[in-house]
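STRUCTURE:
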C-alpha cells in the first residue's frame, strides 16, 4: 500500500512461554479507521503497547510516516504524531476537565508534569486543550471536576487527552469499554466524525461499533493475523466466523 501511514512487519512479543504477538504484519493507510478484533488473549492490547512504545518488540519493525520508530521511546513517538488511549482511564480526578487536557497538551509538547501550575494558567496550553475538548464533544464540561463526569464522559475526556497533541494517528484501546447503549452511540458518532481528520487504529470488542466504523478490519487469534480486509469480507470469512465471530456451520455471526 503506497499511502501507508503505519507499516508493521514481523512483530513478535513473548512473555515467558506465552506468545502475545507472533510474526504480526499490518498496514494502516492514511485517513482510514482500521479496527483490530479478536478473542480475549489474541494480542490486541500487546500490539497497541508495542506500537506506542510501552512494550519493546522482541523482533520485527514498525514504520510510521516512512520512518523506522521501532527503537524510539513513547514520548518520541508521541512527538511524531502517534497518540494512544488506554482500556482503563488515568485521570487527575481532583482537577478540572480543562486542566486534565492542558496537562496532556503540555506532555505531548515534551514538558514535565512538574510544571502543572503553568498548564492551569498558560493560554498556549489551554487554547489547544479547549480545541481538543470540542473535538471530543466535552467543551460544555470544561470547568467541571473530572471526578464529576460519568464513565462515558471519562472516556470522552481520555479521547480529548489523546487528541491534545493534534496527532496524525490515534491508537484507541477499547474506547467503548463499560459504556451503555446511549454512551456507545455517542462515542461511535464522535469517532465517525474524527475519521475525517485523523487516522485511527481501533481495538474494540463491540462488534456493532466496529462494523459501523471500520474501513478495514484485521482479525487476530493467538497473536497472529488470520484475516484482514473490508468489513464485508471479514463478515463473510468462514475462518473468522469460526474462530471469533460465531459458528460458521450454524450461520450464527455475532455482529
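SEQUENCE:
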Amino acid at each position: 500500500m503506497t499511502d501507508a501511514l503505519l507499516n508493521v512487519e514481523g512483530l513478535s512479543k513473548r512473555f515467558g512461554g506465552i506468545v502475545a504477538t507472533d510474526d504480526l504484519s499490518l498496514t494502516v493507510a492514511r485517513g482510514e479507521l482500521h479496527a483490530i478484533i479478536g478473542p480475549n488473549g489474541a494480542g490486541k492490547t500487546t500490539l497497541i503497547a508495542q506500537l506506542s512504545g510501552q512494550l519493546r518488540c522482541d523482533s520485527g519493525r514498525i514504520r510510521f510516516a516512512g520512518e523506522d520508530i521501532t527503537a524510539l521511546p513513547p514520548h518520541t513517538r508521541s512527538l511524531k504524531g502517534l497518540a494512544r488511549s488506554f482500556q482503563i482511564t488515568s485521570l487527575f480526578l481532583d482537577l478540572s476537565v480543562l486542566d486534565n487536557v492542558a496537562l496532556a497538551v503540555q506532555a505531548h509538547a515534551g514538558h514535565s508534569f512538574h510544571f502543572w501550575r503553568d498548564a492551569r494558567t498558560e493560554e498556549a496550553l489551554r487554547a489547544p486543550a479547549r480545541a481538543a475538548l470540542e473535538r471530543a464533544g466535552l467543551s460544555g464540561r470544561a470547568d467541571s471536576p473530572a471526578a464529576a463526569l460519568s464513565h462515558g464522559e471519562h472516556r470522552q475526556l481520555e479521547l480529548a487527552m489523546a487528541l491534545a497533541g493534534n496527532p496524525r494517528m490515534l491508537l484507541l484501546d477499547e474506547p467503548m469499554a463499560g459504556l451503555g447503549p446511549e454512551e456507545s452511540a455517542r462515542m461511535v458518532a464522535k469517532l465517525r466524525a474524527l475519521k475525517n481528520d485523523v487516522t485511527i487504529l481501533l481495538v474494540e470488542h463491540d462488534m456493532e461499533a466496529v462494523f459501523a466504523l471500520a474501513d478495514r478490519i484485521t482479525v487476530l487469534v493467538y497473536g497472529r493475523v488470520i484475516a484482514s480486509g473490508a468489513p464485508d469480507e471479514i463478515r463473510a470469512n468462514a475462518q473468522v466466523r469460526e474462530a471469533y465471530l460465531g459458528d460458521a456451520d450454524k450461520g450464527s455471526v455475532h455482529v
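REMARK: The CA atoms of residues 52 and 74 lie 6 Å apart.
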